[in-house]
Automatic annotation (TrEMBL):
Residue intervals passing through the bilayer: 14-32
GO CC, any one term: cell outer membrane
Primary localisation category: membrane
InterPro entries in alphabetical order: Bact_OuterMem_StrucFunc, OMP_bac, OmpA-like, OMPA-like_CS, OmpA-like_sf
CDD domains, alphabetized: OmpA_C-like
Keyword Membrane: yes
Name assigned to this protein: OmpA family protein
Keyword annotations of the record: Cell outer membrane, Membrane, Transmembrane, Transmembrane helix
Ranges for domain OmpA-like: 94-213
Domain of life of the source: Bacteria
Cited PANTHER family: LIPOPROTEIN YIAD-RELATED, STATOR ELEMENT OF FLAGELLAR MOTOR COMPLEX
Key word Transmembrane present: yes
Amino acid sequence: MANLDVQPKRKSSTWIWIIFVVLLLGALFLLYKGCNRTEPIKVDQSDSLAHDTVIAGITPVAATQPNWDAVDFTIPKAKYEEITDTAIIVRGNQKYTIYSLSENVLFAKDASTIQPVAEAKLQQISASLIKRFPNAQIGIYGRTDSIGGTGYNKTLGAERANAVKNWFVAKGGVLETALSTHSVGETKPLATNGTEKGRAQNRSVEIIAFPDSTGN
């Protein structure tokens, strides 16, 4: 009988190929899932934003706006050494400061163009705002008496407030982003409209500075 040299089959290479195929299929499955993702990946940008802010040297500004409708225009008078013109009335408390100018100082009757004589007074106010409230939110209120229609007075108050705002930006060096305008018109009078003296008090412009930008 002839001797047969029979050797066992080598199975190790077969298992290697099986493992390789399984791994390849797994990788293809993960790649397919990634390419078909429908939900966006959520990235928390708070840390990176804060980091970039620190690098840029910028202090974040509070998003809260002052409560412009809750201003008390009868708060006590204040004295600032830089305000030397007696036509400018300053009032203040811990929340805000009010600079007031009468209508006849700023404008001609029924007009909204700032008179040349008023520019020196507005310059004192703008310099005080820049000195004391560089980061404040500043509201400019236009006020009228009750003579004339309500709609007319509302429009006139808005035009006068905008005229003061435009002057502050163009000539006073105040940032436009800090300014807002508010037309009171004949509503919320400071004094009675039944007398000429009272009506004169109601024809005015007030500039209110909120140092903390909250007004609370």
